[in-house]
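Recall that a protein's primary structure is simply its ordered list of amino acids. Everything else, from secondary elements to tertiary packing, is in principle encoded there. The following example makes that idea concrete.
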Amino acid sequence: MTIVQMLEQIGIPPVLGMGVILLFFVVLIICISRAGKRAHARGLNKDTAVSGGASSPSTVKSSKISPALAAAITAAVNNYRNKNS
């Protein structure tokens, strides 16, 4: 077996593998774009903000946590981030 034949045999699996990965990505992109078009056609891509939904982390709307406790936790987190950044 010559060096050229060995290099041909060594080179085929990586090229074949890259081709399979490329084909997978192409199919994935096509499926994602079609799913996005279907969601857009059905109106599923619109934001449905409901009052009382997810709030920003800095605001506390729960009656279970006192504002003083929330302020203490926020101060502790900020202190930790300042020391470890």
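The mean pLDDT is 84. Residues 3-45+60-83 form one domain.
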